[in-house]
Amino acid sequence: MTTAMGAALRRIQMGNALSAFGNGFTVPYTFLYVSQVRDLGSTTAGIALAGFAVAALLVLPFTGRVIDQRGPLPVALVGAVASAVGALALGLSASAGAVLVSTFVLGGGIAVIQPALATMIVWSSTPGTRSRAFAMQFFLANLGLGIGGLLGGLLVDEDRPGSFALLFGIEAAMFLVLAAVVVSVRLPKAAGAADAAPAQAGGRWRALVGDRAMVQLCVLGFVLFFACYGQFESGLSAFALEVSHITPAMLGVALAANTAVIVVAQFLVLRLVERRRRSRVIAAVGLVWTVAWLAAGASGWVAGGQAMATAAIVSTYALFGLGEAMLSPTVAPLVADLAPASLIGQYNATFALVKQLALALGPAVGGLLAGAGAYRAYIVMVVVSSLGISAVALWLGRRLTPEQDRPVPLPSKVVATGNTAGAVEVAA
């Protein structure tokens, strides 16, 4: 990796961390703010949160083409400014209409930032350093979200709407900092796709759909996000509270355990997985999450007392964190390595779209099953989904080239042939 690439990557990571830090101030408190502080009710708050996903689903189909044609920098800049405007407006909104418009603008802005930053990281890294770059992005994002959430909890006061305006103001300021960082980045021209012939709009989608490995990766991504992230705020939390009977405070401890595992274990996990086949690492995540869901089920139906149930739920969230740490240096770099040079933005945006679809459907399905009290069916569904992750990952591995599946080769071993002059290198 060149000096210019390293300098650009450091700026991108700094901007990503600061925007996540700002986002952390508001994410845990948005529902409370809309429903109670602004006294607009739970229904309006739920619709407002759904507005984030709807905005993402509307803008992402067009984002990839713009990134590939105009470059990721202007897209990230527009997304950061739109997010700042949406966050500031949300902090000042007092009516349902204003809240919904604000969340739509904020959600759309955040949605386009994600594939733009991912493309910038791809342009500023090599296949050999890409896994570490995306692992660092994930680590910094979670660290920023965690610290922002903790500080936000110290500042917020349910009886003072102005304290929430302060939180959203801080979030808006951090998005503007991201915009300033983006403007200062000098992406290595040789690393980008600017010299590649841009495909026509229809040809872009045909090329992507014709890439069987990418289609399988999108299927895998949907199941990944549906079975884990899509359940955090719906089915899993409902199961923990209603079946395992843990307290809301201990649910907060479980969420903290998830973040702690990611922050503490990320680079240890990276050293363990970066030289291994990506498809097998993802398959291992499916097994880890299967154990996590079985632990969750045991917390509600296996005798052992409240302490054991609480420990099982905390373990479930911690195991999810371990799986997330294994995925961060694996899935996003694989999307980049599958993409032709002229379609990196398209591939990143499409995968982000699949993620948003899973994050929209996951809570809906989990919430419906929880509302119906069908918790046994719910646990069966998520266990089968987790096992499906392993199966689809191994299936995908058959389509990947050796360079795509394991871009960082194992170190060679020197095998002696009887004399020092006849040593032979053998790849491990």
Account of the protein in words:
With 428 residues, the protein is mainly alpha-helical. The protein has two domains: 1-185, MFS general substrate transporter like domains (Growth Hormone, Chain: A, Up-down Bundle), CATH 1.20.1250; 203-406, MFS general substrate transporter like domains (Growth Hormone, Chain: A, Up-down Bundle). Helix content is 77%, strand content 2%. It has helices spanning 3-24, 30-37, 41-70, 72-92, 96-123, 130-155, 161-184, 201-210, 212-227, 235-242, 248-273, 278-301, 305-327, 331-338, 344-371, 375-397, 402-405; strands at 412-415, 424-427. It has a two-stranded antiparallel ribbon. Helix 10 runs parallel beside helix 15 (344-371). It is globular and about 55 Å long. It comes from Streptomyces smaragdinus. It is a multi-pass membrane protein. Pfam families: MFS_1. Residues 1-400 form the Major facilitator superfamily (MFS) profile domain. This is Major facilitator superfamily (MFS) profile domain-containing protein.
